[in-house]
Design brief:
The structure holds 2 protein chains of 2 kinds.
Chain A (H helix, E strand, L loop, with lengths): L6 E4 L25 E4 L36 E6 L2 E7 L2 H16 L6 E7 L12 E5 L4 E3 L10 H20 L2 E2 L8 E6 L2 E6 L6 E2 L5 H24 L9 H20 L2 E4 L4 H12 L2 E10 L5 E11 L1 H10 L5 H18 L5 H19 L10 H19 L5 H11 L32
Parallel strand pairs in A: 1-2
Antiparallel strand pairs in A: 2-5, 3-4, 4-6, 5-6, 7-9, 8-11, 9-10, 12-14, 13-14
Chain B lengths: L4 E8 L9 E8 L4 E5 L6 H9 L6 E6 L2 E2 L10 E4 L11 H11 L4 H14 L15 H13 L5 E5 L7 H18 L2 E6 L2 H7 L2 E6 L2 E6 L1 H6 L4 H8 L3
Parallel strand pairs in B: 3-8, 3-9, 6-7, 7-8
Antiparallel strand pairs in B: 1-2, 1-4, 4-5, 9-10
Helix pairs in contact in B: 2-3, 2-4, 4-5
Classes of the chains: A alpha+beta, B alpha/beta.
């Protein structure tokens, strides 16, 4: 039931060819006084049920999904909308519009980021006072802010994996021509990915898109990343939330090392003798191992024809994801896909060595993946994504078999996994835990100071 | 130490584009001057700042800082402070630590760091709150802490790229006034980029107006009003944002 104000809905096409910052002066046409002005590609009437006439700080608890809030300079709140969770950020109209279109561009480029839903302007209180415009994005299911990835202290191995995921995200963004301008753990969400993490961009406010980036732009982003990550870790240190032995400065350097190695492997030029042509395939295999496909190579031969110069020109992340999707229709993160494909290969060797890959993949889906997913009781389905459950189950089965020195059957491993592991995990579909910022406290920054 | 800045015929063409982002820029900024780079999005302001910071290679021309050719000097050795558009304060760290963390990253010894933090706090009237956590501060105070992060670095030159763009109107006006008074008290050469003509005219000792990478005019705000060099300049400064 909608008792809210009238609203003008309009779609605002994204200019996918526009470079750099969004030009000013493209703000939406003014709505009638007292009417909300909603820019969105979809029309979800339920959006009008939210209390837009209140400042976000004053939203009633009933409207809020109790999710942790990261470090933000804006007031950000999470709410329920039609069965999903949305993030709402108060900001200026131009900034909201810039970010809305930037996220749409990034989505089209297949870069991992949150989904933009709407920009809402024309908000007024019951007394007629103007309220800040908001950007609405859809919360990524099963994604976690870095501060929710540990309950007591952040340990070195987790931190290393977080930074590796962040470096990979930055490389992917830079390959797409996106200069971020505010790289930090706080501006990133993480999804579990078979023992590692997959990183998603959540804040594109300072971002700019170009046909390609200069070294200076990439280096600037890296410097921002290093300083911000060091600051974030120093803060955790101060709060006693990080292993004592972790050095924030040394650790923050890791993003530069990992990034540079990855960038060199993905874009670097390689020269070799004509007789070493196998090195072309070796390079492709190395890139596949890193999770990238090569769409295009530049291959040049020196004038005397003795040396070949090889440089990947277009690389595309998601090598294993695509292969898993082709074979099974399953959509998973890169490392989960790699893990499941490995299991599929083992399954084929053990059970159907004569079947071709596609047929054995279907058999694996029917006899391994689906039974595991079906065995998860309904009340435990919000704990983890299905692909992550299957990955963990496979790990669990391996440990059981090692310990008991026998080949533990799948059904037995599933039951053991559910009882000893899954049941004791928290729900991560829409994570509720944050040791630092319990729901209802002030924003660490940008929000109100606590009373008293 | 004199911290003048000179661009000598500086040009930058981004890979994959035809038109230079900045074309043949020649511009001098005086020691202690507050120079504003103004113009619409895409006019090359940020590129000019990044060239000065050493974060953008130049296709031709030179940049001089304090009279020395800095064109080939790496960013970390240039002694310029790019004021990040990042105002997130760290909740577990005291105001003093929030101010000084970048110095720690840069390896500045503890005693000197403490002295610089105290000095910045004095200038920004944050002495009383140095031991508090950010949660206990007002919005204004938080903004000053964010600014103080650049002040403690005591660079030869401050670079500010739309530092106010993401603030709401009220906070923007207050912060603008603080930046103006702070820059004058510190006497540090400042290059400040903004698309907002009102901000440019309020802050700049002189304002350099750019259009599509080309410098149109550089003059005091009064002169720009009185004698705009062309129609673009007249239009730009005549239309409040």
């Amino acid at each position: 039931m909608n008792n809210g104000p009238a609203a003008n809905w309009h779609d605002e096409p994204t200019d996918f060819g526009q470079l750099g910052k969004l030009p000013r002066g493209l703000d939406a046409p003014a709505a009638a006084i007292g009417a909300l002005n909603i820019t969105s590609a979809t029309t979800d009437e339920k959006l009008l049920d939210l209390p837009w006439d209140l400042a976000l700080e004053d939203w009633p608890v009933a409207n809020l999904a109790a999710l942790p809030r990261g470090l933000s300079r804006h007031v950000v709140r999470f709410a329920h909308l039609s069965g999903s969770v949305i993030a709402i950020k108060e900001t200026s109209e131009h900034v909201a519009r810039h970010e809305y279109h930037m996220l749409r561009k990034l989505q089209r480029l297949d870069v991992p980021c949150v989904e933009p839903l709407a920009v809402i302007t024309g908000r007024r209180t019951a007394d007629g006072a103007d309220l800040d415009p908001v950007l609405v994005t859809r919360h990524l299911r099963f994604s976690l802010p870095y501060r929710a990835l540990f309950s007591q202290t952040l340990r070195q191995p987790t931190l290393t994996r977080l930074i590796d995921a962040q470096a990979l995200l930055l490389v992917r963004l830079h390959l797409a021509g996106f200069y971020w301008g505010d790289v930090s753990l706080s501006n990133t969400l993480f999804r579990r990915d078979a023992g590692a993490f997959a990183a998603y961009l959540v804040d594109a406010e300072t971002g700019e898109l170009y046909p390609e980036l200069s070294t200076g732009q990439r280096e600037y982003d890296l410097e921002i990343a290093r300083v911000n990550i060091a600051g974030e870790l120093m803060d955790l240190h101060e709060g006693g939330l990080i292993e004592e032995k972790i050095d924030p400065l040394d650790t923050s350097e890791r993003i530069m090392d990992v990034y540079r190695k990855l960038w060199a492997e993905l874009t670097g030029q390689e020269s070799f003798n004509l007789g070493e042509r196998w090195r072309v395939n070796a390079r492709i295999r190395r890139l596949n191992e890193l999770g990238f496909d090569v769409e295009e190579f530049t291959i040049k031969t020196t004038a005397d024809g003795s040396t070949i110069q090889l440089q990947p020109k277009v690389v595309d992340a998601g090598h294993h994801q695509r292969r898993l999707l082709e074979l099974t229709g399953l959509d998973a993160e890169e490392n989960q896909a790699r893990r499941l494909l490995n299991d599929m290969d083992t399954y084929r060797a053990d059970n159907h060595p004569d079947l071709d890959q596609e047929l054995s993949a279907h058999a694996w889906l029917r006899h391994v993946f689906e039974p595991v997913v079906r065995a998860i009781p309904r009340e435990l389905q919000g704990k983890l994504e299905p692909a992550e459950v299957v990955h963990q189950l496979l790990e669990h089965r391996w440990y059981l078999s090692e310990n008991q020195n026998r080949n533990v059957p799948l059904a037995e491993a599933v039951q053991s996994y559910i009882d000893t592991i899954l049941r004791h995990r928290r729900d991560e579909a829409a994570i509720l835990l944050d040791a630092d910022a319990p729901a209802g406290t002030a924003e660490p920054d940008g929000g109100p100071a606590p009373a008293g | 130490m004199m911290a003048t800045v000179t661009f000598d015929n500086a040009t930058r063409v981004y890979p994959g584009t035809e038109r230079p982002a900045v074309a043949g820029l020649s511009l001098s900024v005086g020691d202690g001057e507050f120079l504003v780079l103004a113009g619409p999005a895409g006019c090359g302001k940020s590129t000019v700042l990044r060239m000065l910071a050493g974060l953008e290679e130049m296709d031709s021309g030179r940049v001089l800082i304090g009279g020395r050719d800095a064109t080939a000097v790496p960013a970390k050795d240039r002694d310029v402070a790019m004021v990040f558009q990042n105002y997130a304060l760290y909740p577990h760290m005291s105001v003093a630590d929030n101010l000084g963390f970048a110095l720690k990253i840069a390896g500045v010894p503890d005693a000197e760091r403490a002295a610089r933090v105290r000095e910045a706090a004095r200038l920004l009237e944050l002495e009383e709150v140095l031991d508090l956590r950010p949660q206990a501060l007002s919005g204004d105070q938080r903004q000053r802490v964010a600014m103080g992060r650049a002040v403690v670095r005591r660079p030869q030159v401050f670079l500010m790229d739309e530092p106010l763009a993401n603030l709401d109107a009220a906070l923007r006006a207050r912060t603008r006034a603080q930046i103006a008074s702070l820059a004058r008290r510190l006497g540090i050469t400042t290059v400040y980029a903004t698309h907002d003509q009102a901000e440019a005219m309020a802050l700049g000792d002189r304002v350099a107006v750019l259009r599509e990478g080309v410098l149109q005019q550089v003059a005091t705000p009064h002169e720009l009003y009185a004698r705009p060099a062309n129609q673009f300049v007249a239009g730009f400064i005549g239309t409040p944002d």
